[in-house]
Amino acid sequence: MQRRSFFTGAATAVAAASVSRVAMAALPEPVIQASADTAEPLTPPNGRPYHPVVTLNGWTCPWRMNAGVKEFHLVAEPVVREVAPGFFVNMWGYNGQSPGPTIEVVEGDRVRIFVTNRLPEHTTVHWHGQRLPNGMDGVAGLNQPAIPPGKTFVYEFEARRPGTFMYHPHADEMVQMAMGMMGLWITHPKARHPLIAEVQRDYAFLLAAYAVEPGAATPRVNEMTDFNIWTFNSRAFPAISPLVAKQGDRVRIRVGNLTMTNHPIHLHGHEFEVTGTDGGPVPLTARWPEVTTDVAVGQMRQLELVADAPGDWSLHCHKSHHTMGAMGHGVPTMIGVDHQGLVGKIQKIVPDYMLMGERGMGDMGSMQMPLPDNTFPMMTGQGPFGNIEMGGMFTTFKVRSQLGANDYRDPGWYRHPKGTVAYEWQGAPLDAQAPRQTAPGTAPGAASVHKPESLPPAAGHAH
Ligand SMILES: [Cu+2]
């Protein structure tokens, strides 16, 4: 069952130890997050109003207003992220977690961000997708000197274009992004915008991948292709919160990709349109319906749909390896290999050897294999009908007719109306025998043609 306890104000403020107390006293208190649970949306207490996003297994950074400027404080620091239940990874992040807090502002806001570096090496922050003065763009060496350990730098600019953005380092970025340094940035429109719909639910997450050997706790930062931990906001299924919607809600899902490969993000049961990218809102004439959209490396995609179909619908990366938990990629394919008489012989040499994979690997979800410390199963996640056989970049989109407008709690598993679950075929009753199927290449016989009026009413919803 999904552990999902919402909280407000549970974050505690602590001062960054390596920066002088006097210098820190003048800064906005950095808000540090200890929990990997999804926080409630942060309704803006001041400034221009907006409908806040829900950051999956994350939170929004509180700010202070200082003479009309929105001031945030990010602390770049080593963190420990619980990626899956009992699986802890040493990462680098911001304000206690990876990803760092989501920064939410409104078009036209003047924004000042203090960045304190508590990492063992220098860093910067690049504000991916922003229109800003060149010296605020955060590329070490090109736009600014890097922020040394123990120092605080200030970035200041106007949030000009509404949309879905992110932030990440542009200093030793191969290491720093492999270690989890990233966060979301949302700029809401200041007024009704012809290309930005009002939505009832607005979710955001980043795709991140890590290379962590089973039993280890620190990602291999030199890895380029062979990652084994696939995450939404540095969490792997079943530890990723579900996206919840009331039936009829218009829902926006913002996805950014900071991995080394593309991810085709696929939603079941609904069509969506890509309504925005990190370049801004997509013109209406350039939108088309999809159920899968590829999010390439460095891109952001904003999906929108009307949640009209009740149920528990899969939302996942369509690369099947990316919906696995910790896995080894050197396992031989054993499908069709007859192991009979072989296991006993091998076990004389390798006592722990066990038979697996000769009928496929679906059984692995229910296998109780001993795992090294600090890893998690390759396939996991229990559903109402048994093992879901998924891990990694997978979660559910839960649509319910009865749900409060601001209720984001997991409503539990969907209760299917009678007669709407796939079932075992146990033979036709004698009086219901259908005519034989028409042979390929021959004209259909009159007996096998359904007249339109005899068709059963269309299932599902009309468009
Ligand atoms: Cu993927």
UniProtKB/TrEMBL annotation:
Residues 90-191, 218-330 form the Plastocyanin-like domain. Keywords: Copper, Metal-binding, Oxidoreductase, Signal. InterPro entries: Cu-oxidase-like_N, Cu-oxidase_C, Cu-oxidase_fam, Cu_oxidase_Cu_BS, Cupredoxin. One of its GO terms (molecular function) is oxidoreductase activity. One of its GO terms (cellular component) is periplasmic space. Pfam families: Cu-oxidase_2, Cu-oxidase_3. It is found in: Periplasm. Residues 433-463 are annotated as: Disordered. The keyword Signal applies. Residues 1-25 form the signal peptide. This is Copper oxidase.
